[in-house]
C-alpha cells in the first residue's frame, strides 16, 4: 500500500485557547514521510494541537499549510488527515469491518474496490479474524489495529496518532511500537504521534518536538533532545535529573561552570549566566580523585536497580549518578563513604536559563 | 434505625404506593372495559379516538422535526447565548398546560401575528390545527431535553473521526450519532406521543371543547363528565389507560444493544 505523497505540513504561529488548555505560538514544519513525535506531559495541550492540525478546531491565530496550499480554513472532511485517538473512538454500533470501510463507503467506490482496499489494509495489520466483531468485544490492542486500519484504508497523506499506545499493557505496547514503525515504512505516510512517554518517542521519532505548557520548547533529533535539552523544563522532562545554574567562567581560554565549589570544564558557546544539566548515566564514580572535572562528595543513598545502581551523592549540591553495578569495583557505595564523581565536559549540557 | 426496620419500611411504602396506583387505575379499567365494545360503535367516541390519534401523531412528528436540530445545537455548539436559549426553551416545561394554552390563545387570537396567519388560512383558535399546536407547544421542551441528553451521551470525537474520513457534519450525524441514539429517539417519541394523546389543559384553552369538532379523548371525557354520561366517560378513560399501558410496554421493550451497556460510550 502506498501513501499519497504530500508536501510538508507547516504550522505557523498557531495559537488556540480551549478551556484550560492553551497553545502558544506554535511553529513547526513536518516533512513528507517523516515520523514526528510530539512529546509532552499530560495537560501540555498535545491533543488540542492534533485536533487543530486535523481541522476539528479552528486556531485563534496562525496558519496551517500543506505543501503549497493554505489549509487553515479547511474543515476536517477536506483535509482528510487520518486520526487515531487514545481510546480509538471506534464506532460502537458497527463491527470491525464496517468501521474500516466507513470512509470508503462515503466515496463512490464499487463493492469490488471496497473489498480490495479492505483486504489490503486488513492483511497489512493482521486483523482478518476480527472483521465480524463489535468493538466492545475487542481487546485494546485489537481495537488499536482496527482504528489504524480505518485511518490507513483512506491512504491519508498525514496520519495523526493521539497517545496511541498509552492505554495498552507493556507487552502489547512494545509489539505495536514495532508495528507502527513497520506501517510507517510500508505506507510512507507522514505521521505525527503524540505521547508523554519518552522511550516511545526515542524509539519511533525521526524527530521529536517537546510541548510543555502549550509551547513548543524544542524540536530536534531524539539524540539531540536526549543529550542536549535546551532548557530546564525539557531537561527535567527527558530525565536529566542533575540541573544547576552557574556563571560561565572563562579561565585560560577554557570555559568552566561551578558546582558545589568545584569547577567543571564545559564545551559551550554561551557566556554569562547559564543553566546546565547532566544525565545521571553520564556521571562516573571513582574511589580516588581524578585530574579532570572531578567532584569530591559523600554518598547519601544507594538504590540498587538490577544491573544499574542509583547513587545519590552530596557534592556540595545533590548529584544523582546511575552506575553499572559491575563497574563500581573498588568504589565503596555505602551511605557516608567518600566518593569522587567525574563528569566529562561532553556530558555537560549548557543552556540559557529562562529570562 | 436498624437495618431491617429501614428495609421493611422502604418496602412497605413501596408496596402501598404500588397498590394505590393499581387500585386507582384498575377501578376505571374494571368498570370501563365492558363499555368499550359498545362505545366503539358510538360515533362520538369513534370521532374522539380518530381525532386523538391523528392530532397526536402529527404533533409528535412535528416535535421530532423541531427538537432534533434544537437538541443538536444545544448539545454540540459552544456559542454565547445558547445557555440562555436552553433556559428559554424549558419554559413551557414548567408552565401549567392551561397557562401554555392561554399564551397560545392570546398570541394567535389577539395579536397582529395571529390575525395575519388567520387571514392566510392558518387558524389555530378553536380548530383542529389548534389541538396540534397546543400538543406541540407543551411537549416540545421535554423531547428536546431527551434528545439533547442522548446526543451529549455520544462522544463528539466519534463525529470528529467520521469527518476526518470525509463525512460532512450532517452526514457524520446521520451515520454515527443518529444510529447510536435510535433507542433514545424511540423512547422520546413514545413518551411525547402518550403525552400528546392525553393533553387537556392547553388544548382546551386554544382549541376549545366542541363536540364533533375539537373533541379529543380527554376533551370527550371532560364533556361526558360535565353531562354525567358515565358510560362514555368510563370507556374513554379506559381507552386512554390502555394506550398508556401499551406505550409503556413498548418503551420498556425498546431493545438495548449490548454496546449501549458499555460504560463510557
UniProtKB/TrEMBL annotation, chain A:
Q: Which UniProt keywords apply?
A: ATP-binding, Hydrolase, Nucleotide-binding, Transport
Organism's domain of life?
Bacteria
Residue ranges occupied by any ABC transporter domain in the UniProt entry: 9-238
Q: What class of enzyme is it?
A: translocase
Q: What is this protein called?
A: ABC-type quaternary amine transporter
Q: Which GO terms describe its cellular component?
A: ATP-binding cassette (ABC) transporter complex
Tell me the gene name: malK
Q: Which PANTHER family match?
A: SPERMIDINE/PUTRESCINE IMPORT ATP-BINDING PROTEIN POTA, SPERMIDINE_PUTRESCINE IMPORT ATP-BINDING PROTEIN POTA
- UniProt-listed Enzyme Commission number(s): 7.6.2.9
InterPro entries named among the record's database cross-references: AAA+_ATPase, ABC_SmlMolc_Importer, ABC_transporter-like_ATP-bd, ABC_transporter-like_CS, Mo/tungstate-bd_C_term_dom, P-loop_NTPase, Transp-assoc_OB_typ2
A single GO molecular function term of this UniProt record: ABC-type quaternary ammonium compound transporting activity
TrEMBL record, chain B:
Enumerate the InterPro entries for this protein.
MetI-like, MetI-like_sf, NifC_ABC_porter, Sulph_transpt2
Q: Which CDD domains match?
A: TM_PBP2
Q: Which residues cross the membrane?
A: 51-75, 87-108, 120-138, 185-212, 232-251
Q: Does the keyword Transmembrane helix apply?
A: yes
Ranges where the ABC transmembrane type-1 domain occurs: 49-252
| Location in or out of the cell | Cell membrane; Membrane
Membrane topology value:
Multi-pass membrane protein
Sorted UniProt keywords: Membrane, Sulfate transport, Transmembrane, Transmembrane helix, Transport
Give one Pfam family.
BPD_transp_1
Q: Does the keyword Transmembrane apply?
A: yes
Any GO CC annotation of this UniProt entry: plasma membrane
- Give a GO molecular function annotation for the protein: ABC-type sulfate transporter activity
Subunit field text:
The complex is composed of two ATP-binding proteins (CysA), two transmembrane proteins (CysT and CysW) and a solute-binding protein (CysP).
Q: Which family does it belong to?
A: Belongs to the binding-protein-dependent transport system permease family.
Q: Which PANTHER family match?
A: SULFATE TRANSPORT SYSTEM PERMEASE PROTEIN, SULFATE TRANSPORT SYSTEM PERMEASE PROTEIN CYST
Protein function: Part of the ABC transporter complex CysAWTP (TC 3.A.1.6.1) involved in sulfate/thiosulfate import. Probably responsible for the translocation of the substrate across the membrane.
- Put simply, this protein is called Sulfate transport system permease protein CysW
Species source reads: Neomoorella thermoacetica
Amino acid at each position: 500500500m502506498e501513501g499519497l505523497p504530500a508536501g510538508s505540513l507547516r504550522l505557523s504561529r498557531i495559537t488556540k485557547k480551549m478551556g484550560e488548555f492553551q497553545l502558544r505560538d506554535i511553529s513547526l514544519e513536518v516533512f513528507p514521510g517523516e515520523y514526528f513525535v510530539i512529546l509532552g506531559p499530560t495537560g501540555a495541550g498535545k491533543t488540542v494541537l492534533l485536533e487543530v492540525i486535523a481541522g476539528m478546531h479552528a486556531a485563534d491565530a496562525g496558519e496551517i499549510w500543506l505543501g503549497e496550499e493554505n489549509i487553515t480554513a479547511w474543515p476536517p472532511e477536506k483535509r482528510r488527515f487520518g486520526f487515531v485517538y487514545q481510546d480509538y473512538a471506534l464506532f460502537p454500533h458497527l463491527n470491525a469491518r464496517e468501521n474500516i470501510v466507513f470512509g470508503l463507503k462515503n466515496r463512490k467506490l464499487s463493492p469490488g474496490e471496497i473489498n480490495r482496499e479492505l483486504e489490503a489494509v486488513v492483511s497489512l495489520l493482521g486483523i482478518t479474524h476480527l472483521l465480524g466483531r463489535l468493538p466492545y468485544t475487542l481487546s485494546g490492542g485489537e481495537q488499536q489495529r482496527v482504528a489504524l486500519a480505518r485511518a490507513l484504508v483512506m491512504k491519508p497523506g498525514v496520519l495523526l496518532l493521539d497517545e496511541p499506545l498509552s492505554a495498552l499493557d507493556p507487552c502489547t505496547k512494545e509489539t505495536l511500537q514495532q508495528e507502527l514503525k513497520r506501517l510507517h515504512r510500508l505506507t510512507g505516510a507522514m505521521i505525527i504521534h503524540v505521547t508523554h512517554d519518552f522511550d516511545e518517542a526515542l524509539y519511533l521519532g525521526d524527530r521529536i518536538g517537546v510541548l510543555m505548557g502549550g509551547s513548543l520548547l524544542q524540536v530536534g533529533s531524539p539524540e539531540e533532545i536526549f543529550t542536549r535539552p535546551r532548557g530546564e523544563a525539557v531537561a527535567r522532562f527527558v530525565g536529566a535529573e542533575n540541573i544547576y545554574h552557574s556563571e560561565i567562567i572563562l579561565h585560560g581560554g577554557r570555559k568552566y561552570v561551578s558546582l558545589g565549589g568545584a569547577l567543571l570544564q564545559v564545551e559551550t558557546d554561551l557566556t554569562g549566566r547559564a543553566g546546565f544539566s547532566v544525565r545521571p548515566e553520564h556521571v562516573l564514580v571513582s574511589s580516588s580523585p581524578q585530574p579532570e572535572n572531578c567532584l569530591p562528595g559523600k554518598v547519601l543513598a544507594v538504590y540498587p536497580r538490577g544491573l544499574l545502581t542509583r547513587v545519590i551523592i552530596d557534592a556540595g549540591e545533590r548529584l544523582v549518578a546511575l552506575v553499572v553495578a559491575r563497574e563500581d569495583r573498588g568504589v565503596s557505595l555505602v551511605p557516608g563513604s567518600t566518593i569522587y564523581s567525574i563528569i566529562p565536559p561532553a556530558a555537560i549540557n549548557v543552556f540559557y536559563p529562562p529570562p | 434505625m436498624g437495618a431491617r426496620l429501614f428495609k421493611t419500611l422502604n418496602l412497605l411504602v413501596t408496596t402501598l404506593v404500588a397498590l394505590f396506583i393499581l387500585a386507582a387505575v384498575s377501578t376505571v379499567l374494571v368498570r370501563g372495559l365492558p363499555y368499550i365494545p359498545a362505545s366503539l360503535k358510538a360515533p362520538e367516541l369513534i370521532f374522539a379516538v380518530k381525532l386523538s390519534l391523528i392530532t397526536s401523531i402529527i404533533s409528535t412528528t412535528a416535535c421530532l422535526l423541531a427538537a432534533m436540530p434544537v437538541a443538536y445545537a444545544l448539545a454540540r455548539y459552544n456559542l454565547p447565548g445558547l445557555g440562555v436559549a436552553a433556559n428559554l426553551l424549558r419554559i413551557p416545561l414548567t408552565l401549567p398546560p392551561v397557562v401554555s394554552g392561554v399564551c397560545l390563545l392570546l398570541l394567535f387570537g389577539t395579536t397582529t401575528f395571529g390575525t395575519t396567519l388567520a387571514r392566510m388560512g392558518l387558524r389555530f383558535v378553536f380548530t383542529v390545527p389548534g389541538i396540534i399546536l397546543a400538543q406541540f407547544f407543551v411537549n416540545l421542551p421535554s423531547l428536546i431535553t431527551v434528545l439533547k441528553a442522548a446526543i451529549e451521551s455520544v462522544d463528539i470525537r466519534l463525529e470528529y473521526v467520521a469527518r476526518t474520513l470525509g463525512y460532512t457534519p450532517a452526514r457524520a450525524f446521520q451515520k454515527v450519532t443518529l444510529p447510536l441514539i435510535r433507542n433514545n429517539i424511540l423512547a422520546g417519541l413514545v413518551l411525547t406521543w402518550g403525552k400528546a394523546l392525553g393533553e387537556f389543559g392547553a388544548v382546551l384553552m386554544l382549541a376549545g371543547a366542541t363536540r364533533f369538532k375539537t373533541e379529543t379523548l380527554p376533551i370527550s371525557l371532560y364533556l361526558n363528565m360535565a353531562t354525567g354520561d358515565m358510560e362514555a366517560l368510563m370507556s374513554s378513560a379506559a381507552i386512554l389507560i390502555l394506550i398508556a399501558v401499551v406505550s409503556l410496554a413498548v418503551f420498556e421493550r425498546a431493545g438495548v444493544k449490548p454496546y449501549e451497556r458499555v460504560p463510557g460510550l
